[in-house]
Amino acid sequence: MTAIDEFVLRARGLRKEYGTGEGLVRAVDGVDLDVRAGETVAVMGPSGCGKSTLLHLLGGLDRSTGGEVSLDGRRVDLMSERALARLRRADVGFVFQSFHLMEELTAIENVELSALLAGRSPRAARRRAEELLARVGLTERARFLPSALSGGQRQRVAVARALCNEPRVVLADEPTGNLDSAATLDVLRLFESLHDTGQTLVIVTHDARIAATADRLITMRDGAFVDETRLTGGSTGRLGALVGLED
Ligand SMILES: Nc1ncnc2c1ncn2[C@@H]1O[C@H](COP(=O)(O)OP(=O)(O)OP(=O)(O)O)[C@@H](O)[C@H]1O
Ligand SMILES: [Mg+2]
């Protein structure tokens, strides 16, 4: 028996179409998804198959043209713009391939901005940002601008920012797409530790090593799920062996 509440994120018949007639693109074409609390789901598939579009629909960054999405039982597809803005601020943490940091703000300011926007006091926001930067191993770099950080460090700031308001789910869109392999391992370890702390995660990735950290791997093609594999590598400590790391 599975209680509905167990699912943080659900989609039913989810669709997103662009254009009309000859130019019609079915970017997401009838997706059903159930993500349990604490689960890490990886989504892989060829370029253009609809992975980013799907993440945007799941996190309320974009509106579907059909079907349902719910987060904690709340219908995202029926929300007002205002409610969606609140959802994106408080309930969902996004991590993007290109980091999306504010270049004129320091690492710590980038992180605390999220907390401030969610209504925390400046002092509480600063404390939270310090705590998160420590967690991603960047205490020493807190006052650096993004331009003075490596790709892996920037992505760790972006992850800290995504976690700032204790989101119900973190949605990551090719979080290692712009990283070299050392930085990829860094970010991969960070996602593993999030998994270990019970954070619910959906990660779109081209990197099999990242996918191997998940509980479940979904393959997408032409806007639809075509395959699903349950994995055991995620939280069982086999990952290190898999990627050839000695811990
Ligand atoms: N704003 C838009 N207008 C028209 N078509 C779009 C738009 N955004 C995306 N698409 C189309 O929707 C499809 C899915 O795009 P999406 O960005 O979700 O793919 P993806 O799987 O994330 O690809 P990649 O791996 O290259 O990031 C593509 O065919 C794309 O061209
Ligand atoms: Mg994409």
What descriptive keywords fit this protein?
247 residues, alpha/beta, Rossmann fold, six-stranded mixed beta sheet, four-stranded antiparallel beta sheet, 8 helices, 10 strands, binds adenosine-5'-triphosphate, binds magnesium ion
Could you characterize the architecture of this molecule?
By secondary structure, the chain is α/β, with parallel strands linked by helices. It is 32% helix and 26% strand. It has a single domain (7-232), classed as Rossmann fold. It has helices at 51-58, 81-90, 107-117, 122-135, 151-163, 181-196, 208-211, 239-242, and strands at residues 7-18, 25-36, 40-44, 66-71, 74-75, 92-96, 169-173, 200-204, 216-221, 224-230. The strands form two sheets. A six-stranded mixed β-sheet has the order 6-7-8-3-9-10, with helices on both faces. β9 and β10 (224-230) form a beta hairpin. α3 (107-117) crosses α4 (122-135) and α5 (151-163) runs parallel beside α6 (181-196). The protein binds adenosine-5'-triphosphate and magnesium ion. The site of adenosine-5'-triphosphate (ATP) has 12 residues, from β2 and α1. This is Putative ABC transport system ATP-binding protein. Residues 9-247 form the ABC transporter domain. Keywords: ATP-binding, Nucleotide-binding, Transport. GO terms for molecular function: ATP binding; ATP hydrolysis activity; transmembrane transporter activity.
